[in-house]
Amino acid sequence: MEGTTRSAALLFLLLISQALTTVHSQEEEDQEVETWTGNIKACTCDCESAQSPTHIPAAAQPVLLTSPFPPPPQNQPLNCMPECPYHRALGFEAGSVTSDQISCSNQDQYGGWYSSWMPQKARLNNQGFGCAWLSKFNDQYQWFQIDLKEIGIVSGVLTQGRCDADEWITKYSIQYRSVETLNWIYYKDQTGNNRVFYGNSDRSSTVQNLLRPPIVARYIRLLPLGWHTRVALRMELLMCMNKCT
Protein backbone atom coordinates (compact mmCIF):
# COMPACT_ATOMS: atom_id res chain seq x y z
CA MET A 1 0.00 0.00 0.00
CA GLU A 2 2.81 2.41 0.92
CA GLY A 3 4.60 1.62 -2.34
CA THR A 4 1.41 2.33 -4.32
CA THR A 5 0.98 5.69 -2.58
CA ARG A 6 4.60 6.68 -3.25
CA SER A 7 4.23 5.66 -6.91
CA ALA A 8 1.07 7.72 -7.29
CA ALA A 9 2.74 10.76 -5.75
CA LEU A 10 5.73 10.36 -8.09
CA LEU A 11 3.38 10.05 -11.08
CA PHE A 12 1.67 13.26 -10.04
CA LEU A 13 5.02 15.06 -9.77
CA LEU A 14 5.91 13.79 -13.26
CA LEU A 15 2.67 15.18 -14.68
CA ILE A 16 3.39 18.53 -13.07
CA SER A 17 6.90 18.54 -14.56
CA GLN A 18 5.57 17.67 -18.02
CA ALA A 19 3.05 20.48 -17.87
CA LEU A 20 5.61 23.05 -16.76
CA THR A 21 7.85 22.19 -19.70
CA THR A 22 5.11 22.09 -22.36
CA VAL A 23 2.91 25.03 -21.44
CA HIS A 24 3.89 28.08 -23.52
CA SER A 25 1.65 30.82 -22.20
CA GLN A 26 -0.87 31.44 -19.49
CA GLU A 27 -3.58 34.04 -19.94
CA GLU A 28 -4.22 34.20 -16.22
CA GLU A 29 -2.13 36.76 -14.36
CA ASP A 30 0.67 35.20 -12.33
CA GLN A 31 -0.33 37.20 -9.29
CA GLU A 32 -4.06 36.71 -9.52
CA VAL A 33 -6.08 37.45 -6.40
CA GLU A 34 -9.42 35.67 -6.18
CA THR A 35 -12.32 36.29 -3.84
CA TRP A 36 -13.28 33.32 -1.69
CA THR A 37 -16.97 32.54 -2.12
CA GLY A 38 -17.16 29.69 0.39
CA ASN A 39 -18.58 27.39 -2.30
CA ILE A 40 -15.77 26.64 -4.75
CA LYS A 41 -16.38 23.44 -6.66
CA ALA A 42 -13.97 23.34 -9.57
CA CYS A 43 -11.25 25.14 -11.45
CA THR A 44 -10.70 24.24 -15.07
CA CYS A 45 -8.22 24.75 -17.83
CA ASP A 46 -8.71 24.51 -21.58
CA CYS A 47 -6.77 21.58 -23.00
CA GLU A 48 -6.36 20.74 -26.63
CA SER A 49 -6.10 17.10 -25.67
CA ALA A 50 -9.24 15.07 -25.09
CA GLN A 51 -7.54 13.75 -21.96
CA SER A 52 -8.07 16.94 -19.99
CA PRO A 53 -6.93 16.83 -16.36
CA THR A 54 -10.42 17.95 -15.44
CA HIS A 55 -12.03 14.87 -17.00
CA ILE A 56 -12.44 12.78 -13.85
CA PRO A 57 -14.28 9.44 -13.81
CA ALA A 58 -17.61 9.78 -12.05
CA ALA A 59 -16.89 6.79 -9.86
CA ALA A 60 -13.58 8.17 -8.59
CA GLN A 61 -13.36 8.58 -4.83
CA PRO A 62 -11.80 11.54 -2.96
CA VAL A 63 -8.15 10.92 -2.19
CA LEU A 64 -5.40 13.02 -0.65
CA LEU A 65 -2.21 11.17 -1.46
CA THR A 66 -2.87 9.98 -5.00
CA SER A 67 -3.00 12.05 -8.14
CA PRO A 68 -6.47 13.33 -9.14
CA PHE A 69 -5.34 13.61 -12.74
CA PRO A 70 -5.40 10.77 -15.29
CA PRO A 71 -2.11 10.11 -17.13
CA PRO A 72 -1.81 11.59 -20.63
CA PRO A 73 -2.05 9.23 -23.61
CA GLN A 74 1.20 7.60 -24.73
CA ASN A 75 3.42 9.88 -26.83
CA GLN A 76 1.05 12.80 -26.27
CA PRO A 77 2.15 15.67 -24.02
CA LEU A 78 -0.09 17.33 -21.48
CA ASN A 79 -1.27 20.53 -23.14
CA CYS A 80 -2.32 22.53 -20.12
CA MET A 81 -1.32 23.28 -16.56
CA PRO A 82 -2.73 20.63 -14.18
CA GLU A 83 -5.29 22.08 -11.80
CA CYS A 84 -7.39 20.58 -9.08
CA PRO A 85 -10.93 19.63 -10.10
CA TYR A 86 -12.18 20.12 -6.53
CA HIS A 87 -10.95 21.52 -3.24
CA ARG A 88 -11.65 20.94 0.43
CA ALA A 89 -10.55 22.88 3.51
CA LEU A 90 -7.76 21.23 5.49
CA GLY A 91 -9.45 22.09 8.78
CA PHE A 92 -8.00 25.25 10.35
CA GLU A 93 -11.46 26.75 10.81
CA ALA A 94 -13.14 23.46 11.69
CA GLY A 95 -10.52 22.66 14.32
CA SER A 96 -9.41 19.36 12.82
CA VAL A 97 -5.93 20.81 12.28
CA THR A 98 -4.32 20.33 15.69
CA SER A 99 -2.05 22.76 17.51
CA ASP A 100 0.99 20.51 17.10
CA GLN A 101 0.65 20.82 13.30
CA ILE A 102 1.13 24.60 13.40
CA SER A 103 4.31 26.49 14.25
CA CYS A 104 6.10 29.77 13.52
CA SER A 105 9.44 31.53 13.66
CA ASN A 106 10.72 32.53 17.13
CA GLN A 107 7.95 30.52 18.79
CA ASP A 108 10.08 29.89 21.89
CA GLN A 109 10.00 33.64 22.57
CA TYR A 110 6.21 33.88 22.79
CA GLY A 111 5.68 34.87 26.42
CA GLY A 112 3.53 37.42 28.22
CA TRP A 113 1.06 39.20 25.94
CA TYR A 114 2.32 37.31 22.87
CA SER A 115 1.35 33.97 24.42
CA SER A 116 -2.25 34.80 23.44
CA TRP A 117 -1.27 35.24 19.77
CA MET A 118 0.49 31.96 19.05
CA PRO A 119 0.41 30.46 15.53
CA GLN A 120 -2.27 27.99 16.64
CA LYS A 121 -4.67 30.97 16.77
CA ALA A 122 -4.37 31.57 13.01
CA ARG A 123 -7.68 29.92 12.15
CA LEU A 124 -9.97 31.34 9.48
CA ASN A 125 -12.84 33.39 10.98
CA ASN A 126 -11.44 33.07 14.52
CA GLN A 127 -12.89 35.76 16.82
CA GLY A 128 -12.20 37.39 20.18
CA PHE A 129 -8.97 38.24 21.96
CA GLY A 130 -6.12 36.18 20.54
CA CYS A 131 -7.96 35.59 17.27
CA ALA A 132 -4.89 35.46 14.99
CA TRP A 133 -1.19 34.76 14.75
CA LEU A 134 0.85 37.89 15.44
CA SER A 135 4.50 37.62 14.54
CA LYS A 136 6.91 38.42 17.36
CA PHE A 137 8.94 40.46 14.86
CA ASN A 138 7.80 42.39 11.81
CA ASP A 139 10.39 41.65 9.15
CA GLN A 140 10.83 39.39 6.13
CA TYR A 141 12.60 36.67 8.14
CA GLN A 142 9.37 35.39 9.71
CA TRP A 143 7.43 32.29 8.70
CA PHE A 144 4.27 30.34 9.49
CA GLN A 145 4.42 26.54 9.06
CA ILE A 146 1.92 23.71 8.68
CA ASP A 147 2.77 20.01 9.04
CA LEU A 148 0.20 17.94 7.14
CA LYS A 149 1.51 14.80 8.94
CA GLU A 150 1.72 13.05 5.57
CA ILE A 151 2.32 14.03 1.97
CA GLY A 152 -0.72 15.77 0.54
CA ILE A 153 -1.74 17.84 -2.47
CA VAL A 154 -2.19 21.50 -1.47
CA SER A 155 -4.22 23.47 -3.98
CA GLY A 156 -4.82 26.86 -2.37
CA VAL A 157 -4.41 29.28 0.53
CA LEU A 158 -7.05 31.49 2.19
CA THR A 159 -5.94 34.42 4.36
CA GLN A 160 -7.52 36.99 6.68
CA GLY A 161 -6.13 39.69 8.94
CA ARG A 162 -6.47 40.14 12.69
CA CYS A 163 -10.15 40.24 13.72
CA ASP A 164 -9.95 43.14 16.19
CA ALA A 165 -7.39 45.52 14.66
CA ASP A 166 -6.27 46.79 11.27
CA GLU A 167 -3.34 44.41 10.92
CA TRP A 168 -2.81 41.94 8.08
CA ILE A 169 -0.38 40.46 5.54
CA THR A 170 -0.42 42.20 2.14
CA LYS A 171 1.81 39.75 0.25
CA TYR A 172 3.67 36.52 0.89
CA SER A 173 5.61 33.67 -0.68
CA ILE A 174 5.35 29.92 -0.09
CA GLN A 175 7.94 27.23 0.60
CA TYR A 176 7.41 23.48 0.87
CA ARG A 177 9.20 20.18 1.41
CA SER A 178 8.24 16.52 1.75
CA VAL A 179 10.84 15.46 4.32
CA GLU A 180 11.99 17.44 7.35
CA THR A 181 15.66 16.91 6.52
CA LEU A 182 15.37 18.32 2.97
CA ASN A 183 15.89 21.95 2.01
CA TRP A 184 12.88 24.20 1.57
CA ILE A 185 11.72 24.80 -2.01
CA TYR A 186 10.13 28.08 -3.08
CA TYR A 187 6.93 27.93 -5.08
CA LYS A 188 7.90 29.46 -8.44
CA ASP A 189 6.07 31.35 -11.14
CA GLN A 190 6.37 30.45 -14.84
CA THR A 191 9.48 32.58 -15.26
CA GLY A 192 11.30 30.66 -12.52
CA ASN A 193 11.10 33.46 -9.95
CA ASN A 194 9.72 33.02 -6.46
CA ARG A 195 5.96 33.49 -6.76
CA VAL A 196 4.55 36.47 -4.84
CA PHE A 197 0.97 36.02 -3.64
CA TYR A 198 -1.10 39.09 -2.83
CA GLY A 199 -2.95 38.98 0.46
CA ASN A 200 -5.37 41.17 2.34
CA SER A 201 -6.40 44.82 2.25
CA ASP A 202 -8.61 44.81 5.36
CA ARG A 203 -9.01 42.86 8.59
CA SER A 204 -12.05 40.71 7.74
CA SER A 205 -12.20 39.85 4.02
CA THR A 206 -10.93 36.44 2.97
CA VAL A 207 -8.53 36.35 0.02
CA GLN A 208 -7.96 33.12 -1.89
CA ASN A 209 -4.92 32.20 -3.95
CA LEU A 210 -5.14 28.93 -5.88
CA LEU A 211 -1.94 27.02 -6.58
CA ARG A 212 -1.57 26.19 -10.27
CA PRO A 213 0.00 23.67 -10.28
CA PRO A 214 -0.72 22.40 -6.75
CA ILE A 215 2.01 21.51 -4.26
CA VAL A 216 2.81 17.88 -3.38
CA ALA A 217 4.47 18.00 0.04
CA ARG A 218 4.11 17.42 3.77
CA TYR A 219 5.39 20.74 5.13
CA ILE A 220 4.14 24.15 3.96
CA ARG A 221 5.54 27.53 4.95
CA LEU A 222 4.00 30.95 4.38
CA LEU A 223 6.58 33.75 4.43
CA PRO A 224 5.23 37.32 4.89
CA LEU A 225 6.74 39.79 2.42
CA GLY A 226 4.55 42.80 3.21
CA TRP A 227 2.05 43.78 5.90
CA HIS A 228 -0.19 46.56 7.17
CA THR A 229 0.93 47.74 10.62
CA ARG A 230 1.91 44.24 11.81
CA VAL A 231 2.31 40.67 10.52
CA ALA A 232 -1.09 39.19 11.46
CA LEU A 233 -2.74 36.11 10.00
CA ARG A 234 -5.83 33.94 10.04
CA MET A 235 -5.79 31.27 7.35
CA GLU A 236 -6.96 28.01 5.80
CA LEU A 237 -5.34 25.59 3.35
CA LEU A 238 -7.22 24.01 0.45
CA MET A 239 -6.49 20.39 -0.41
CA CYS A 240 -6.88 18.94 -3.89
CA MET A 241 -9.62 16.34 -4.31
CA ASN A 242 -10.78 14.37 -7.33
CA LYS A 243 -14.46 14.51 -6.39
CA CYS A 244 -16.68 16.95 -4.52
CA THR A 245 -17.65 15.80 -1.02
From TrEMBL:
<keyword id="KW-0732">Signal</keyword>
<feature type="signal peptide">
    <location>
        <begin position="1"/>
        <end position="25"/>
    </location>
</feature>
<dbReference type="InterPro" id="IPR000421">
    <property type="entry name" value="FA58C"/>
</dbReference>
<keyword id="KW-1015">Disulfide bond</keyword>
<protein>
    <submittedName>
        <fullName>Retinoschisin 1</fullName>
    </submittedName>
</protein>
<dbReference type="Pfam" id="PF00754">
    <property type="entry name" value="F5_F8_type_C"/>
</dbReference>
<feature type="domain" description="F5/8 type C">
    <location>
        <begin position="84"/>
        <end position="240"/>
    </location>
</feature>
<dbReference type="InterPro" id="IPR008979">
    <property type="entry name" value="Galactose-bd-like_sf"/>
</dbReference>
